[in-house]
């Protein structure tokens, strides 16, 4: 299971693992930080320590078990002997062994609780994966109570929201009032903070730097700082003053001070992307920065547009180094070397690929496509090897495809909400930081390659200036310009946001933005005026379209319209309709149905009252379930043709396929309905499809929190929303999944092949159990899984039927000799599919592994060749294999 803490908080995750009794290894990532936690039956056995939030000596001092003088003596000895500080303290008799044990436990506990404050972290849980050395070192006993850790973290998180309101960023600079300096130092002294007398709150250092010297855990220190800010004793330094501090630091060649001030300015809401780029260039071109060859780094949290602006500033200066942006599990690193540009990207929501970019770079003929299809099906080799090794594409064309992919990933920063941005100067590594994700590298020894990159970056800088948010609304307005009656930009009717149009057209965001930019360049489209935004919002509120009104307010604010007025309208909408500010970034939770009982996931989403979209797919089939405050809904959308036509105009492609309808063709009512408004037959059909989804053996699930399609809130006649009886639905889901778990123990795989004991047994089965169309398939040729698929019946029904038939002695498994004879007959008549099924079953019966795996490979290769040949004959122009 993998996900973002924005989707499932660590508290909810730990409670889920505890309630389900799961054992395994949990890894939590936060930028370069990584924490590993080992659990048995949901309880924490042990954790790794990759950094210390509260130093051991500081903990002992705060507990009045050690003096600062004695700690200094021990630290001096540690530098000379390299012994652990705890061993030195015990050896000198300064503390007792049990004191060290208690302090170490406290240290681990603080690090665990700190995880709950990692806002953009993501996690990965490997079920039943517990290293032997962990079990041996802790003797299987839990080191911490999971429940107690969650309770303490919850207590602190409640207070943290208040702290964040007072101190939005620790990068900020604060100044203590002169008359309050003594009382401030006293405040931290009373907390036994070892570094209380080292505080420097003169308005020329960041709060972050002071947290490092205090010797307190972050929560206690921030609580005290927030109290001082609340009383007015501690005051933030204004943007203009920090701007002057930056100028002075650059003049004095104080590089570290310059970078810390830049970080604080980047995290200030008053800073625009254009000004951020100018400030960054000012710092990056300074003598102090240029003369420092490596080791320089800075980091800040800012909007996606600002992230792209900073990257442009770095690229403009020809700087060597690694530029990284991180947000909720999605991480992108760009490595800028002397002669290469590389990109590493990982995202729990998608698996990046290069395939579709091949369409942009070559002249692929129908013969090329057919040949690549055949080779890929026969050999199983990667696409790159097929295209290059087969001579279908040149290496230059492949390199151009890589460049297009790298550039798209870099430009995609533009759409991130508020990532953490980091740059480390120096010749970067040519290897990815981790083995997961996508790593691509291109050489720009040729000046034309770098020129192409710089041209695209400058273009997106202009786009960012003119399309400040996906919430803005554009309107077709050619003025006096004569245009064609079928001008595509006439579809900008002034009542949809950019985000709505992207969704409607199913276009990629980058392609759509470039299309829109062309329209602005031609003077055919413009943003709504302040008055037009106001009129749109009034009309949306009158029609009950509160989400549309809220988005229009956000668009108006992003466009620099009357800030006070539109901010007031947002506040009114939130108060009256409980609307939350939408996040543009998707936060997901992913896993597979083989390891995690989907009913447990559903119950967790319900109990924590989450909203969002649950997507279940086995690669071929797909089902969506929607949650609103924990309640379960299904959604049917009849797409209009307008969006498809619009996509044809923008991208020049074939009309995209229609959205899958969840309910089928029988439901004609539109709007919001409940179970009681449906016929029993239709309701049962809908639920059966859902319950069957939960039994897809190799399927994966993905829950995207706080992301529901706008149609979910729509009153359109094209949308039907069905509210299920959530409690009853979950209870039945749990019952069926539990029954399925029992059946799986009887039928360990779907490759088993059954036959009737004899003809009389077959007649008796038909007489007592019915289902002749199913029983007819029990012929020694069809596997259990195939019978279920052909019959169209649910897994529970088919597997339950076989359980009962076997229990009554009416059916039996084929013997190994029978299976081999059936395979031989199938090969004789050229039926590779039946032969393949027989060999799979033979392996489960203990047949010689090496021999029959080889036979199976031959049969499956023949099947692939037959299917590839048939596909090539049917449609030689189908390019979907590249996507």
Describe the structure.
The chain has 883 residues and is of the alpha+beta class. The protein is built from 36 helices and 26 strands. The strands form five sheets. A twelve-stranded mixed sheet has the order 4-3-2-5-1-18-23-19-20-21-24-22, with helices on both faces. It has a six-stranded antiparallel sheet with strand order 9-13-10-11-12-14. It starts with a strand and ends in a 9-residue tail after the last helix. Mean pLDDT is 78; it is low at 348-353, 359-363, 580-585, 639-671 and 873-883.
How is the topology of this model organized?
Blueprint: E1 2-4, H1 10-20, E2 24-30, E3 33-40, E4 43-47, H2 56-62, H3 68-81, H4 85-91, H5 97-115, E5 122-127, H6 132-138, H7 146-166, E6 173-176, H8 181-190, E7 202-206, H9 207-214, H10 218-231, E8 234-236, H11 239-251, H12 255-266, H13 273-284, H14 287-291, E9 297-301, H15 304-316, E10 321-327, E11 330-336, E12 340-346, H16 358-361, H17 366-379, H18 383-389, H19 395-411, E13 420-425, E14 438-443, H20 447-466, E15 473-476, E16 493-497, H21 498-505, H22 509-521, E17 525-527, H23 530-542, H24 546-558, H25 563-577, E18 587-592, H26 598-607, E19 612-617, E20 622-628, E21 631-637, H27 641-651, E22 671-674, H28 680-693, E23 700-705, E24 719-723, H29 726-746, E25 754-756, H30 759-769, H31 772-775, H32 784-791, H33 795-807, E26 811-813, H34 816-828, H35 832-844, H36 849-874
Helix pairs in contact: 1-7, 5-7, 7-10, 11-12, 12-13, 13-15, 15-20, 17-36, 23-24, 24-25, 26-29, 29-33, 34-35, 35-36
């Amino acid at each position: 299971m993998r996900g973002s803490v924005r989707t499932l908080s660590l508290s909810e995750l730990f409670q889920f693992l505890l309630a389900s009794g799961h054992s395994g290894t949990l890894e939590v990532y936060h930028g370069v930080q990584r924490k590993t936690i080992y659990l048995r039956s949901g309880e924490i056995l042990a954790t790794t320590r990759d950094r210390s939030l509260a130093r051991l000596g500081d903990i002992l001092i705060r507990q009045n078990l050690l003096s600062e003088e004695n700690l200094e003596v021990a630290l001096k000895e540690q530098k000379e002997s390299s012994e652990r500080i705890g061993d030195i303290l015990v050896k000198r008799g300064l503390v007792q062994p049990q004191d060290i044990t208690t302090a170490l436990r406290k240290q681990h506990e603080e690090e665990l609780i700190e995880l709950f404050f990692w806002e953009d972290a993501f996690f990965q849980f490997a079920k039943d994966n517990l290293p032997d050395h962990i079990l041996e070192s802790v003797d299987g006993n839990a080191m911490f109570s999971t429940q107690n850790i969650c309770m303490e973290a919850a207590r602190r998180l409640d207070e943290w929201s208040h702290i964040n309101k007072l101190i939005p960023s620790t990068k900020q600079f604060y100044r203590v009032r002169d008359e309050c300096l003594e009382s401030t130092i006293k405040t931290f002294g009373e907390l036994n903070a070892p570094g209380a007398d080292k505080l420097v709150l003169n308005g020329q250092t960041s709060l972050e730097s002071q947290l490092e010297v205090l010797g307190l855990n972050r929560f206690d220190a921030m609580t005290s700082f927030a109290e001082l800010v609340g009383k007015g004793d501690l005051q933030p330094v204004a943007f203009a003053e920090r701007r002057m501090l930056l100028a002075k630091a650059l003049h004095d060649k104080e590089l570290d001070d310059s970078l810390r001030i830049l970080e604080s300015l980047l995290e200030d809401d008053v800073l625009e992307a254009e000004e951020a780029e100018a400030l960054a260039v000012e710092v990056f071109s300074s003598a102090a920065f240029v003369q420092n060859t490596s080791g320089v780094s800075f980091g800040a949290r800012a909007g996606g547009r600002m992230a792209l602006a900073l990257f442009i500033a770095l690229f403009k200066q020809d700087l060597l180094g690694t530029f990284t942006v991180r947000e909720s599990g999605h991480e992108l690193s760009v490595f800028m070397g002397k002669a290469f540009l590389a990109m590493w990207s990982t995202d729990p929501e998608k698996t990046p690929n290069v395939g579709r970019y091949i369409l942009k770079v070559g002249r692929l003929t129908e013969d090329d496509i057919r040949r690549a299809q055949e080779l890929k099906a026969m050999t199983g080799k990667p696409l790159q090897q097929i295209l290059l090794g087969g001579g279908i594409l040149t290496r230059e064309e492949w390199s151009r495809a890589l460049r297009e992919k790298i550039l798209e990933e870099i430009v995609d920063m533009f759409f991130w909400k508020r990532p953490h941005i980091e740059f480390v100067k120096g010749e970067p590594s040519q290897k990815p930081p981790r083995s997961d994700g996508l790593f691509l590298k291109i050489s720009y020894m040729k000046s034309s390659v770098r020129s192409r990159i710089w041209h695209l970056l400058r273009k997106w800088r202009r786009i960012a200036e003119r399309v400040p948010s996906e919430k803005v609304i554009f309107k077709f307005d050619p003025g006096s310009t004569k245009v064609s009656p079928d001008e595509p930009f006439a579809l900008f009717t002034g009542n949809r946001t950019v985000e709505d149009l992207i969704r409607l057209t199913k276009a990629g965001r980058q392609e759509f933005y470039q299309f829109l930019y062309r329209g602005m360049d031609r003077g055919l489209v413009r943003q709504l005026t302040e008055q037009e935004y106001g009129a749109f919002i009034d009309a949306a509120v009158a029609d009950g379209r509160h989400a549309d009104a809220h988005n229009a307010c956000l668009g108006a604010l992003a466009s620099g319209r009357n800030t006070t007025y539109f901010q007031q309208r947002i506040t009114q909408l939130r108060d009256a309709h409980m609307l939350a500010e939408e996040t543009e970034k998707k936060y997901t939770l992913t896993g597979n149905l083989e390891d995690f009982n989907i009913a447990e996931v559903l119950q967790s989403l319900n109990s924590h009252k989450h909203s969002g979209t649950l997507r279940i797919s086995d690669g071929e089939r797909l089902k969506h379930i929607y949650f609103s405050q924990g309640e379960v809904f299904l959604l049917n959308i009849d797409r209009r043709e307008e969006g498809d036509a619009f996509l044809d105009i923008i991208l020049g492609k074939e009309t995209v396929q229609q959205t899958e309808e969840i309910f089928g063709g029988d439901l004609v009512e539109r709007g919001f309905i409940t179970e009681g408004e449906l016929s029993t037959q239709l309701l049962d059909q809908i639920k059966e499809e859902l319950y069957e989804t939960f039994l897809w053996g190799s399927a994966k699930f993905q829950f995207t929190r706080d992301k529901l399609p706008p149609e979910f809130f729509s009153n359109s006649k094209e949308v039907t929303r069905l509210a299920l009886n959530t409690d009853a639905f979950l209870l039945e889901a749990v019952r069926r999944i539990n029954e399925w778990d029992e059946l799986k123990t009887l039928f360990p795989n779907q490759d088993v092949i059954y036959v009737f004991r004899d003809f009389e047994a077959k007649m008796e089965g038909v007489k007592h159990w019915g289902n002749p169309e199913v029983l007819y398939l029990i012929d020694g040729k069809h596997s259990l899984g195939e019978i279920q698929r052909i019959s169209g019946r649910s897994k529970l029904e088919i597997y339950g039927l076989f359980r009962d038939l076997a229990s009554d002695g009416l059916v039996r498994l084929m013997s190994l000799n029978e299976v081999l004879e059936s395979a031989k007959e199938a090969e004789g008549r050229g039926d590779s599919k039946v032969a393949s099924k027989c060999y799979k079953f033979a392996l489960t019966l203990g047949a010689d592994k090496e021999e029959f795996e080889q036979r199976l490979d031959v049969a499956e290769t023949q099947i692939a060749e037959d299917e590839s040949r048939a596909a090539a004959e049917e449609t030689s122009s189908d390019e979907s294999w590249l996507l």
